[in-house]
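Spend some time on this chain, tokens included, and walk me through the fold:

. . .
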Amino acid sequence: ADAVPSLILGSLDDFTKGLIRKVAAAEQKASLPKLLVGMGQAIARAMPAEVRAALEAVCARAHASGRTASILLLTAEPNVPWELASLAHAPDATAASFLGAQADVGRWIFGNLEPDQPPTGPLRGTEIGVVTGDYSNVPKWNRLEQAEQEAAHLVATYGATSLEAVEDSVLALLDGDPPCDVLHFAMHGSYDPQGIQDGLVLADGSMLDPLVVEASRLARHPFVYLNACQASGGQQLLGAYAGMAASFLYAGASAVVAPVWSVGDVIAREIATRFYERVLRGARPADLLRQERAGFDQDSRSATHLAYQFFGHPHFRAVPEGSAPPGAATSPGAHGASGLADDSDEP
């Protein structure tokens, strides 16, 4: 089928920036739950009617058969949180009505020069590189003590290689030194509306620009987790999107997790801890993020659980289900194409 345009009035950039500003302003306030529900309704209205109807039908059919729908969104609008569109008739009454709480949702870049179709996994192995830094001496950026604890946990629990968030070290990592199958970034991220300082903030005061990432070639096709504020946001550049998550995909990443708005550091660390406990045992990232979103309720005071987008196939597994402990090698998986929506639980 041909691509259909969204129904967003005005520019996509203004639409997304407006959502991010509103969510940031309402964080920890009593109005936050209603704001997020209203945001979900606005996103649903921006969806083409035929796409919205198809998604509702897939979710309903899967739920009726006792399964969870698996949906792959091919979109040229990677910074719009389509996962948070409210379903008018959410089939699972025990979960929030957001699309991404009712279904396992992955997304992929769609355009003239989209990256290869997303693989279902598994990765070549489970070697983890974790990047963080001490921002105490970096002007305008506060120290991220929770991110430092997050990195220390990955090192202690899974034998991850710790890497300082400085330019030479990060550039070497992108070029395969050390060779890693999982790249985890626990650090500051910056979205600059002027497009001058957009990317990951390094602890030496420099900025890792999305274009620098895109020029890299990730030979091991790693899984990437960006626990950095606004790291998946993008802006128009030469007719495409220059968001950090998209740049990792163009560079060869198999899948990327990234937040679309600023996240609370304590909750972000807790989500990452739960995530790796299960994904390194064969759970699917799309399923784990669905469960995080599903817990949203009218008493929620943080939008962090709804912030994460998954760029990848909804059936993607970093390691085979029931795999050996982290650190053991696994065989590479095939890179296969997939459709828009699938209500099957199996690849």
Notes: The chain is about 30% helix and 15% strand. The CA atoms of residues 96 and 294 lie 5 Å apart. The longest helix spans residues 49-64.
